[in-house]
């Protein structure tokens, strides 16, 4: 019975991931044909190379992304193993190429003709699409595969390689279009990155608090019973005094921060409190760990 439940859970998780990859690939393709191409704005990665080649040589973007991804996928499979480049990655770049071809008609009625708006909303669409694909535990191939292959051969950080590759692509846009397009492309890359982070980290914003106080037991009881939140007691040593101390770790919703500070202040006005962002919290009382 347990084996059957595990099999059903694994199947439903796989189907959910495929749905995420499909939706994400569609949004990515939409950003290309509905926003970037009509406004002559180049993105990073193989899609950016595809945009440049289409303007320069007339080669369809869908063909470029598909044909360049295939050898990268094969090389990645052989060098890094099938576990690193599985079916979902193959499906990701194939369905992306298909959607880019199918949404080609969107170019006739672009979302906007204003370049600044185009790079902002195009970045949101592209970042949203890629973020959803990543939530599906997959990628759409591209230069991240190339970066990991080069890292395997040379040991150079993938982040540095991606920065260099995207930089070369964007600089090439200045030769084909004009220098101003580099500035628009940089804005688009920034918006894309922030949107991916937003999708990856979730919609909710929570706060994590570290509380150091001689009255830690009273504060702990207040958090558990008054705020109805969990609290973890950490062992610490004062750097200056060398004394053993108790540090309380507590995660609360943003709306509960004021209540937490009032509680601590009412018990110990001299307590040392650090409050910082917790972009995604999974567990009881917060988001369920399903994605």
TrEMBL record:
Cellular compartments annotated: Cell membrane
Protein name as catalogued: YitT family protein
CDD domains linked to this entry: YitT_C
Secretion signal span: none
Key words of the record: Cell membrane, Membrane, Transmembrane, Transmembrane helix
Spans through the membrane: 20-37, 49-73, 85-103, 115-134, 155-176
Major subcellular site: membrane
Keyword Ribonucleoprotein part of the UniProt annotation: no
Location of the DUF2179 domain: 229-283
Pfam family, one: DUF2179
Protein's UniProt keywords contain Transmembrane: yes
Record membrane topology: Multi-pass membrane protein
InterPro entries, per the entry: DUF2179, N-reg_PII/ATP_PRibTrfase_C, UPF0750_membrane, YitT
PANTHER family registered for this protein in UniProt: UPF0750 MEMBRANE PROTEIN YITT (PTHR33545:SF5), UPF0750 MEMBRANE PROTEIN YITT-RELATED (PTHR33545)
